[in-house]
Amino acid sequence: MSRPAAGRSTATSPTVKRQGLRRLLPHPLLFLALLVMWLLLNMSVSPGQILLGSLIAYGAAWTMTAFDMEEVRLKRPAAMIRLAGRVLVDIFRSNLAVGRIILFGLPKGRSSGFMTVSLDLASHHGLAVLAIVLTATPGTLWMNYDPARGDLLLHVLDLDDEQHWIDLIKQRYERLLMEIFE
Amino acid sequence: MTAAPELPVWTALLVSLLVVAGAAITLIGSAGLWRLKSFYARVHAPTLGATLGTGGVLVASMLCFSVLGGRWVLHEVLIAVFLTVTTPVTLMLLSRATLHRDRAETQDEAPPKAKD
Amino acid sequence: MSALFQSAPWATLMLGCAITLAQILLALAMVCASLRMLRGPRAQDRILGLDTFYVNTMLLFLTLGMRQGSNFYYEAAVSIALLGFVGTVASAKFLMRGEVIE
Questions:
Q1: NCBIfam families of this UniProt entry (chain B) (predicted)?
Q2: Which pLDDT tens digit goes with each residue over C60-87?
Q3: Which of residues 11-50 of A touch B (CB under 8 A)?
Q4: Record: contact B88-A132, CB cut-off 8 A
Q5: How far apart are CA B67 and CA A178, in angstroms?
Q6: C6 — phi, psi (to 5°)?
Q7: Of the candidates A137, B31, B7, B49, which has an alpha carbon nearest to the alpha carbon of residue C19?
Q8: Looking at residues B88-96, what average pLDDT do you find?
Q9: Where along chain C do its domains lie?
Q10: Which of B55, B39, B48 minimizes the C-alpha distance to B94?
Q11: Interface membership of B3 toward C (CB under 8 Å)
């Protein structure tokens, strides 16, 4: 496979001029997440572990600059909490629905199949979260995304009403994701 | 055979409930792997075990060790985070590989490539 | 009410039975996954079975840890989860391209 242009991987490109906090600490969210993970893994909040975890997280955050990825910037914490709540509810609901299908079979006349949804969401991070959400709710499976058209190919276990699934994704998840990431 | 840690009654009740519910949901998911007819339908089945099934057992384990040790034991959260992040990746890769193979062999079930 | 906050022999017995039941259910789930692994019919079904098998094993280890009240099983469960992910990704990539190392 051919690699993308090698010149992109230098942190000196003009697009990544960092200001304020981000000059000292790139990817602050990643830093925080790694530190928390370290403390959880060691199950202690002693000063020594915090120092060691910070050092490791700091190194990892700087290593990430080599990839020159677009940084995660979250907006609207309220929308994040709403999304998390919705996803949690949907996990329970769709688990029940898929469990029923497995135990008793699909209702008569229904079948599973593929469908496409055209997304307006374009942020990479937003798409990644959408992929996690769709996989975490059993019954829908992310198959393919075409970035040029913004078309998402899905496989749905109970494809009774295509519009229902389109509404679910566009109204319930995509709007909030666009609020958070764009 | 039935050795178990000595927990207060409320914890024992909750842990028993969560652990059995989680295991039952995982079993239903794995049974789906066996019962469903086509591959694309079967890919949905393991997500049951990876979401609620794992969730139940992990929460039970957190509760059990937190009460047993008298302090918060939360490192099971890491397994949950790891599974939620990796399950989409594995399933996506697997189903895309299948799609690729089915298109190469022109099976009826796979949707055709988007027209350009 | 205070009885709820003390341990009781019947509660411990019930917890033991519940964990045993959960282990039996998980073992049955592993049987289902391995049947799919053995039966196929195609390679992707076997890989899917293997992936499910890994997750079920991880859960079984967690229940074992709860029974023993020991933390060592947690670490085993973490490494099983990691290895399962890497193994499935490598196999899926093999299906896609016909080789793992390009």
A1: CPA3_mnhG_phaG (TIGR01300)
A2: 999 999 888 888 898 899 999 999 999 9
A3: 37, 40-41, 43
A4: yes
A5: 41
A6: -115, 160
A7: B7
A8: 89
A9: 8-97
A10: B39
A11: yes
